[in-house]
Design a protein that fits this description.
This protein is an alpha+beta fold and about 375 residues long. It folds into two domains: about 300 residues, no CATH class; about 55 residues, no CATH class. Helices cover about 40% and strands about 20% of the residues. Strand 1 and strand 2 form a beta hairpin.
């Protein structure tokens, strides 16, 4: 899902849930989404002479594909709004999740739910019905299929081929807003999502603040995907290991605010373990590392080699440096890049020369009986 589309949603309350619908179907599957704003409350200690509490609003999105079998199975479920982060718990009513085919069906069923409350309707002279109907429409977002950004992959094709009733398509998580009404300034890292695994997946106390809603979020999310969406493409141990590894690097950067060679080595080792990102939950985990790398580059701490993909420490004296060097990183990626460019430029000549040399070599071997 493109972030520009999600930014159109206006969530006034941290527990509010937005239902996302798509006008087109994807291979006989309905494209459905669920969107919430999650608030994290943090105590900031660097404001003297007092401590202040700030609210950070994150936006969490889940996109799935559901078929008619799934929708028929959930037809008799009651309508509630139970997805919220409260008392450190991950609550989501799985019975009614993604059960509506389109916006009209959602609004009509919500109206039926309202009509089942005759006492409230009598008090307001039924005007509440018109008001609530507008609210129901604001609880939805209708998008086009090309805006969803579904990428075909072996995982997706296999799930569709086996007729899976509900398929996880995408998960996203990003910072939406930071309330600074009681605080003059905060550290830059508060505007980044890598602080979540840094503070909640490393096994250390959060020195910079106290949270009221997210500590068990990752565990609850995994359990929800595993038991309710039948997602088993990532083991719980590997899931926790990835988040802890990213959290350790993020926490070290937050504490030290500088990069050295040992840190760079760990960052490159972790970056090489990314592997296949066509699986939604794996891609979701590595988005936190993407955010950390983006912050390090923004702060001019590292650069990425355009040949091998490794990171090296940024040097203001050679700000134009694009490749690993033999003197600093122990490998000359610039030389390899130049050779590759030369070969691509003279590919036809080199092939003709190589074939001629091969024919001469074979003729020589044949002449000597080899």
């Amino acid at each position: 899902m493109k972030k520009e589309i999600i930014d159109k949603i206006k969530c006034e309350d941290e527990s509010e849930r937005i239902e996302i619908f798509c006008n087109q179907r994807y291979k006989d599957y309905y494209v459905r989404g669920n969107f919430v704003t999650i608030s994290d409350y943090v105590k900031v200690h660097n404001q003297r002479p007092r401590e202040y509490s700030i609210r950070i609003d994150y936006r969490f999105l889940m996109v799935v594909l559901v078929n008619d079998v799934y929708l028929k199975r959930t037809e008799k479920d009651m309508i509630t709004n139970d997805f919220r982060f409260r008392d450190s718990e991950f609550e989501w009513n799985t019975g009614n999740m993604f059960r509506w085919r389109n916006q009209r069906e959602y609004v009509n069923e919500r109206k039926k739910w309202l009509l089942a409350r005759p006492k409230e309707l009598e008090k307001s002279g039924r005007r509440i019905l018109e008001w609530e109907e507008e609210i129901f429409k604001k609880e939805t977002l209708v998008i086009e299929l090309d805006e969803v950004g579904i990428v075909e992959s072996p995982y997706l094709n296999e799930s569709i081929g086996t007729g899976k009733q509900i398929i996880l398509a995408d998960i996203d998580f990003f910072v939406h807003d930071i309330d600074l009404s009681h605080c003059y300034t905060i550290e830059n890292y508060y505007a980044r999502i890598y602080t979540i695994p840094a503070f909640y997946c490393t096994g250390e106390d959060r020195e910079f603040g106290v949270n009221y809603g997210v500590p068990h979020w990752f565990d609850k999310l995994y359990e929800f995907l595993y038991f309710n969406l039948d997602y088993d493409c990532l083991e719980k141990r590997e899931y926790s290991r990835i988040l802890k590894s990213i959290g350790d690097l993020s926490l070290e950067w937050i504490h030290k605010n500088t990069i050295d060679n040992p840190y760079l080595k760990k960052l490159n080792q972790l970056n090489k373990k990314i592997g296949n990102r066509t699986y939604p939950l794996s891609d979701f985990c590595w988005k936190f590392l993407d955010d950390l790398v983006d912050d390090l580059m923004t702060q001019k701490q590292i650069r990425e080699c355009q040949f091998c993909g490794d990171f090296f420490i940024y040097n203001p004296g050679v700000a134009h440096k694009k490749f690993c060097s033999l003197m600093s990183e122990g490998k000359d990626c610039g030389k390899k890049t130049r050779y590759r460019r030369w070969y691509e430029k003279h590919k036809s000549e080199n092939r003709a020369k190589s074939r001629k040399e091969m024919r001469e070599t074979r003729a020589l071997y044949k002449e000597h009986g080899l």
